[in-house]
Specification:
- The protein has 8 helices and 43 strands.
- With about 625 residues, the chain is mostly beta strands.
- Strands 10, 11, 12, 13, 14, 15, 16 and 17 form an 8-stranded antiparallel beta sheet that branches. Strands 7-4-3-8-9 form a 5-stranded parallel beta sheet, with helices on one face.
- A hairpin with a 6-residue loop joins strand 16 and strand 17.
- It is globular and about 80 Å long.
- About 50% of the residues are buried.
Length: about 625
């Protein structure tokens, strides 16, 4: 496992990681290493050098390490006993690498200590060029690293389309642009370019077929690195990626944005059925190769990980056939990925009967333990943590769910399923038991013709809870055999009182009691749809007051519709049923819909749907 700090829920993201892992930093650090004459000493004033050498291990031999904090004298650093900075004149160093950003002041302080002719360098040369920094005066401002990776492919009759909106404009951002780099399957750079975004809340659309034609590229299956510049409010790049058949085939799917932060483990990976192939797309997020054996798969709860005996080059993409590495393991078994912090949230692709669908695994938390307070939540929090998901119309779809352990300390899952019709009436409550970590439960919902279901904690037989409840949901079109799946976690919804940072808010401190969701438009043949759910942990407003605001590609609102969703109810909405063909054409290919509600927090799923049974589905994102 890479010894790097990426993200934790107490401190948030580690911007230092993003600074060191940026593709441009990789090029700059390689050049930096090349111009350091030996012997090289490292000055490590902020304990950064370890992460630097983990992510960029091709450094020249290190002769010694210097520190300025007296408490660090004599501590082991980089295989050396750290020495006081005041020893620098006696080291005979030909070069000193200051393992720090914004290091001009440090360099000035040590100038009189340098041996004659000693070269001084720092990580400042690894910063993105100043025009790429949102805040040039503060190099490690998180807004300077609004970055993410996306699975991106144009090969074998399948293309990808990344869609989002310039949501930073709503936080006061001025001109925003994207710096983009496309990596091939072997990690080679295929193209780098910039795109300017609309000044308002306009739509963003990057299509792999258009990129391939623009740069005259061969077929590729790789990853797209996205760096948003000039942003405000959010240092996260959120998006959805559609996979569609460019050769007229039946495949169609969509998946959520990557998590932007590498994790040690991921979960929610389904084993294949007998007639399926499951490919896990392993995409190296770093400029150093993943060693053979560093990635393993394990049946959830078995604790018998099987290594992948293949090295993955820097920024490369590897297709791992799950069935080949774990032969004989079949759905509804679940698989745990031990990724060693080498990659952001991976994708998996299921192929069956000539159709493919793509989805993502989720971060498995290592920092959680069961919280006894969850079993004793006060009455004001009602049913507490809820995990809502749609039940699509049973005449056309099967709706299947599978709870997924998503934290290392989750040895059991005490769960109940509450099922609601579209009007908010609870029609069934099914106790699922105290599920063990290695359970293989996957159930179809048959209690309602259309509506939604919610997983909730139920402690009638004991068990622990940590609030990080997840489930995989799978939908199958009965006539065509097309399928889609998604996974997400639980939150507390629509209570004015708070617990452990819940109900979460996209803007400001909890409680989050408003909605701002992104719904992209689709081509005329596959219009967009959304299933909006109004979950409520306790009683809240009887109905939502939800506006669907259609924006054109430049961000201007051009039409609006209003719907009312019952508390604990849901609504299935198609964009071509609420907006006319004329107004949808006016919105254009970059048009999108803002789902806005100031009275309650909705949760939603979105996708594209055609009349021939093709559809895609994933959970929505907000901002």
């Amino acid at each position: 496992m890479l010894d790097i700090q990426t993200f934790d829920n107490r401190r948030g993201g580690n911007v230092l990681y993003k600074a060191l892992a940026h593709p441009l930093a990789a090029e700059a650090i390689a050049a930096l290493y090349a111009r350091l004459p030996a012997p090289v000493w490292v000055l490590d004033p902020e304990d950064i050098a370890g992460a630097l050498l983990v992510l960029h291990p091709q450094a020249p031999p290190i002769a010694g390490v210097l520190v300025q904090d007296a408490a660090e004298f004599g501590v082991q650093r980089l295989g050396h006993v750290a020495r006081p900075l005041t020893d620098l004149p006696h080291t005979g160093a030909a070069s000193v690498l200051i393992a720090a950003f914004d290091a001009a002041a440090i360099a000035a302080r040590i100038a009189h200590l340098l041996p004659p002719g000693c070269v001084v360098a720092s990580l400042d040369s690894a910063l993105p060029p100043e025009p790429m920094r949102t805040n040039p005066r503060k190099p490690l401002d998180p807004l300077n690293y609004a970055t993410n990776f996306a699975f991106f492919r144009d090969a074998d009759g399948l293309s990808t389309r990344l869609v989002t909106a310039n949501y930073w404009s709503g936080y006061g951002a001025g001109p925003v642009r994207l710096w983009l780099r496309l990596f091939a399957g072997d990690g080679a750079v295929l193209a780098s370019w910039e795109e300017e975004l609309p000044h308002g809340a306009g739509g963003i659309r990057i299509d792999s077929a258009e990129v391939r034609a623009r740069f005259a590229l061969p077929e590729f299956t790789g990853q797209l690195f996205i760096h948003a510049i000039g942003v405000a409010g959010h240092d996260v790049v959120k998006y959805a990626v559609d996979t569609y058949a460019s050769d007229g085939g039946p495949s169609l799917s969509c998946t959520h944005d990557a998590n932007a932060w590498p994790s040690d483990r991921f979960a929610g990976l389904p084993a294949p059925r007998e007639d399926e192939q499951v490919v896990l797309w392993l995409q190296n997020s770093h400029a150093t190769a993943i060693p053979a054996g560093a990635i393993t798969l394990d049946r959830m709860g078995a604790e018998q990980p099987v290594p992948l005996d293949v090295a993955i080059p820097a920024f490369a993409t590897h297709a791992l056939d799950v069935g080949a590495l774990l032969p004989g393991l079949r759905w509804p078994a679940q698989i745990e990925l031990r990724a060693g912090r080498h990659m952001v949230r991976p994708r998996y692709e299921v192929s069956r009967a000539g159709r493919t669908r793509i989805a993502h695994v989720n971060v498995e938390r290592a920092d959680l333990a069961p919280d006894p307070a969850i079993a004793r939540l006060p009455e004001a929090l009602g049913r507490g943590y809820l995990l809502p998901f749609p039940v699509l119309p049973r005449a056309r779809f099967r709706s299947i769910f599978q709870p997924t352990p998503m934290a290392l300390a989750q040895t059991d899952l005490p769960l109940r399923l509450d099922v609601f019709d579209t009007t908010g009436r609870r029609v069934a409550a099914r106790f699922l038991g105290r599920l063990p970590r290695d359970h293989a439960l996957a159930l179809e919902i048959t209690e309602v013709e259309q509506g939604h279901a919610e997983l909730v904690y139920d402690f009638r037989e004991g068990g622990g809870a940590d609030g990080w409840m997840h489930t995989l949901v799978r939908y199958e079109h009965i006539a065509s055999g097309h399928a889609a799946e998604s996974s997400f976690g639980a939150h507390i919804y629509n209570t004015p009182v708070t617990f452990r940072g819940e109900p979460q808010s996209y803007r400001g401190a909890p409680p989050g009691l408003t909605t701002r969701l992104f719904l992209r438009l689709g081509p005329a043949a596959t219009p967009a749809f959304t299933c909006l759910i109004y979950p409520a942990s306790a009683a809240w407003h009887p109905h939502s007051d939800t506006r669907l605001i259609l924006h054109d590609g430049n961000g201007g609102p051009i039409a609006e519709a209003t719907v009312r969703i019952a508390c604990s109810g849901s609504m299935l909405i198609r964009t071509d049923e609420i907006f006319s063909p004329t107004i949808l054409r006016k919105a254009g290919p970059r048009g999108w819909v803002l789902v806005r509600d100031t009275t309650c927090r909705l949760f939603g799923y979105h996708g594209l749907m055609s009349d021939d049974g093709r559809f895609s589905l994933d959970h929505m994102f907000g901002f």
